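Problem: given the chain below (751 residues), write out its structure.
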Amino acid sequence: MSAVIKPISVPPQVAAVNAASASFAALVSKLEYLNADQIDHIRQAYRFADQAHLGQKRSSGEPYITHPIAVATQCAEWRLDAQALMAALLHDAMEDCGVSKQDLIERFGSSVAELVDGLTKLDKLQFTTREEGQAESFRKMLLAMARDVRVILIKLADRTHNMRTMGDLPRSKWSRISSETIEIYAPIANRLGLNQTYRELQELAFRHLMPWRHQVLEKAITRSRNRRRDLLKKVQSEVDLAFDKAKLPVKIRGREKTLYSIYKKMTTKHLSFAQVTDIYGMRLILPTVTDCYTALGLLHQLYKPVPGKFKDHIAISKLNGYQSLHTTLVGPSGINIEFQMRTESMHVVAEKGVAAHWLYKTQEPNGEQAERLGNQWLQSLLDIQNENMDASEFWDHVKVDLFPDAVYVFTPKSRIMALPRGATVVDFAYAVHSKIGDRTQSARVNGESVPLRTELKNGDVIEIITSEHPSPNPAWLSFVRTARARSKIRHYLKTMAQTESLELGEKLLTQALRAEGIEKIPHDSMANQALWDKVFRFTGSKSKHELLVDIGLGKRVASIVAKRLTALLVETGEKPDTLLISQERFVTSDHLSQGSVVVDGSENASVQFARCCHPIPGDPICGYLGHGEGLVIHHEECAIAKRLRHKDSERFIYVEWSDEPARAFESTLLVTVTNGPGVLAKVATSISQSEGDITHVNMEEEMGGLESIDLRFTVAVRDQAHLETVLKDLRRTSCVTSAARIMPTKVSSSL
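Solution.
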């Protein structure tokens, strides 16, 4: 009778320690590229992390330390340096174990501490919404990553291991974590050229986000693979034979689309699974770049190429550094098969991206290129951050750049530039330099003048014509595609709005004080500190600068602030000048005591011209300090202005036109014409010949059968005299029965 051997019982604590030690031993086995001192530092970081996480368990029941070890192991496969591996082991110590940044600096140095800090979420801070907290967390991580790319490599390794062990988490968490992975982390991996990680993150997220669809597609792929196994073997043997005859050494590897990329193609192009033809492919690794092009010729002799399916990413690499030749060929039985040709170094960069810099630091020149291309994008994150302090706005900008389906264009000096698909002339200008973008006036594409909103196509040669002074237009924000352009435009407009509002606020407060008998605004010196503190308590402002900007924006009324300031000055013994008061009253007549502001149209955000009445130079006008809108100029006869004056007269100030307006102003015309062919063209020609610029046309929808119709034109004119010339020329046009300006009282009566 044979004896029954009972398993030896191991206490749970000992088993846990043994499991962790075994895992760390597996990590050490991958560190042959580091020296003994570096491995010793990593061992110290492991011991510190093991102690910090003592007693903590993962959802699977394993000791928590197994997770940092798995993250460090992935980083070791990329051959990251010792500091990065130490940070990978310690990446949750600050967040989950109460370890401070100072502790890490003292134990492991500032470089490791900075890496860990960049990886730490902001759970301890209070945000108004979860979305705001998430945006702030990503901003911190991305900015740390822009300073040191190792941050995002560790973060991606962390997310990959979390996705691999997602099955241990409650299903209620699957959707949120998977959505975040597929929308944020996978695109970041792709943007940095980490194709292997990108594909795995997409696949894992798809499996947990849509388990049923993943399962159905997986079964369909398995059936298809079994049916086409013989076919693919035949293709591989024919390709092998052709290359043997040409005596061209080659490594052939099969390539299969991921389930998520198949699903995405089916949904975006409304295809069935049977209609997706490029599921299978071949990857050819060749010794040199010349061999890649030779291989392309051999393949095109072997099978017929599919027209329009050839891409040369060697001559023009992708934004993330990816290089390969792509061609799709019609194989046996009419099956389309994609072939990719690349060198070994290109293959390393294609799979590892920025990480290739560490992986083959000495042997692979393309690793340097991938790092350079990655760093260009990372540097752009810092540029955007410098201009957008709001976390959500920053994250919106970054998301635009995470999906770079690129177009390749040229400067007049034949320098090639890659821009996201849909990019416009203005995007190109800002990509060249922010000063070029700010001064953009017009552009030529392939030698022809084009509108600034023109979308660029592959191969376009763009020439930017600049003006002497910067003048970004707020309308550009409606069509620019790149985060860089959008952030630069917003930054400029915000800065200009602040400057102009400050100047306007200073002028308004000075005039309001003069009406109270005080000649000028008191300086905010130490002698007047107590005075200004009382003013700030009254207005809620933090500084004199902020107060003046608020007055310029209409958030504070100058006359009210002036009255309060005068009362405080009187308390200190200063007496108002009665002669100055009488002078101001004489000058302003029956207008409010804030004095007049001269406008010429050169103002940007601080002064707006009301669209309800379209005032033009020569019209009687008034100014309304809108709540946060700055100064809004209305026609004196505008019904909306009259209504506002009745309700809020304190906010109205006296304004007048400059003798030399700086630009044209819009006016609305009602033109009644006899219906017939070519009528609109005749009217437009007449306006154009009078030097009027048509900005909008509105006509009756049902024109058929009517003898006469009304056309409404919005036309830009210099002043009243120019408008009269336009109307006179219109009335002389044969098809026009009447032409007149739509006056503000008529516009507003219908409101």
